[in-house]
Design goal:
The protein is mainly alpha-helical. Helix content is about 75%, strand content about 0%. The chain is flat, with a radius of gyration of 16 Å.
């Protein structure tokens, strides 16, 4: 049975996988999404975030 990393690599070689990868890269460049991720990570780490 293939491990999870191998399955992900195989998926990323498919047309749908490549499309989703490009979509994720585009979303990661968005400053608003970066701010949302920082807030989420602060919550996970237990820090308080000012609003």
């Amino acid at each position: 049975m293939a491990n999870i990393v191998q399955r992900i690599r195989e998926y990323l070689q498919t047309p749908k996988g490549r499309e989703n990868l490009e979509k994720a890269k585009t979303m990661a460049r968005d400053p608003q999404n970066q701010q949302r991720l920082r807030r989420l990570m602060d919550q996970v780490r237990g820090h308080r975030t000012p609003r």
